[in-house]
């Protein structure tokens, strides 16, 4: 059974790990072995000190490979910052962005391979050999696309300026009002080898509770990917990253506000769009969702989403890795619910 | 008083530090302030993991900046190897060549600036701001030149193969028979900005006890540098790296053997050549030495060198930083001897 996810960092990584472990324990609905592919956002990627840093790819790789700092959700445990301190001593770098030494090993290795001319997808495959994530890791694109944020700047003639997403996210904690997101390079990007196939030939496509704007939204913005999502024969089921009007983690609310979408499970589903409901402004369907899982706190949205052709289910959405009395983790129960939605779609 | 040195790694670095400190304590012969320029060999430079490593520049910079591991003569004290261990975990790198984390900070900083398009000489100047070496540090060239070593290889159609100098030096400890040295890129290199001026406008040019083949020899091989050495009005005085038939440090004997020069203080001086004695094979003078300091053990060479126009002096050449009863260090006494040779030349 082929399952494909479009994922950002922490939320996508943890959901994918829960999925992988759940299927390893309880099997797939059709009893075949699970073949999981994760298409990872690379819009947060950044050059720092001449090194290529891919935050979401690393978070997914470390999380699935047992090398993640569980407490913070990103980076490696037992980190040190000897190299970064040296760089600062040379007057280089941002003092609000520290690369740990272990993490830096990954960036040096990646950059060395990129400089040799290997595409990011091949580099990702080689790095993953060490981590054995148990899934197929794919960057959304081999072309660099970097999300920038337009913020107010009274000193600029235009009154605004663009800063890299990481500066807005990490330095300003998304608190600086954002006028819009600009994905530099996205229009010219192509899906990485295997991405379109992973979507169109999947049995199930999942959107984990990743940021719908700057993670999943960026992936869907790579020319060809949204179209593959609309035409795949697989069911597409998403997990709401918004629970009771707030993101579980991260600052997705600031991103949603910037693009004019309310911070609610229902509004995010409507933003993704229904695969059955044609877009009001375009003749073809551009929605990507068949199903949508919301938290119990958002159960009131279920009926309204069903009205636009999105099969919705309400259940507890807080992820957890500890199995309950039924031997299933919270994430495992979400996975089961997604399978249930997909099965319900196929019988209608 | 302008003093310029052509230097390799450990020997050149320690001699330059001794020179700088001696002049700070005892002043220059003419009472003016000392302006010291070190032209450093970059033939040992190497790309490792996509990072530009410049062993000799770093050794000189760390030594003069108080950041050297005194025991081993190169690298930083209190080192760790967390990043390199990560690189090895990814299956990258040579297991016989470890970059310490602190040292790696320098390589990352340098590479970032090189990738931005800055020439190595500018990068070196920027890195030196942190270390305040008290001298002007110049790479011999902004163009990459990497020394390779031709060694026997029965599996190759030619019976030989080229390996990077660092592989021969560090991995094989110079014990693999070397047929010849090949300086890749040297013929197309140009002296870095300031190098020719530093030689031709100097009051004194010193060759510290660096490797005469792969350090000073490589610098002299940059087109234009040897010619500047022959025409400078400054006296050129060298310090023998060979004491009593053996190198004080390093494996200069293996390098000398490869180019057919005997491992002796006298043979090295003859190899550099006298500025007063025309080359037997060329009409113009290609020798670079006016004076030569040998160890007391090699005092018998003094007269024979004088016969070919090289003013020689015998004195203890083992370097040391502890002042003796006269308040002068061993290195300081070598510097005084070099000044003495230069003065003797000017009165003849």
In the CATH hierarchy, the third-tier topology of chain A is known as Rossmann fold
Name the chain pair with the biggest interface and residue counts per chain. Answer: A-B, 31 and 31 residues
Tell me the series of helices and strands of chain A, N- to C-terminal: EHEEEHHHHEEEHEHEHHEEEHHEHEH
Task: Based on Cα principal axes, name the global outline of chain A.
Answer: globular
- What is the average per-residue confidence, as pLDDT of chain A, rounded to a whole number? 94
Summarize the amount of helix of chain A as a percent range: 25-40%
Give start-end ranges of low-pLDDT stretches of chain A.
Answer: none
Total DSSP helices of chain A: 13
**Structurally, how many domains make up the residues of chain A?**
1
Give the N-to-C terminal Cα separation of chain A: 21 Å
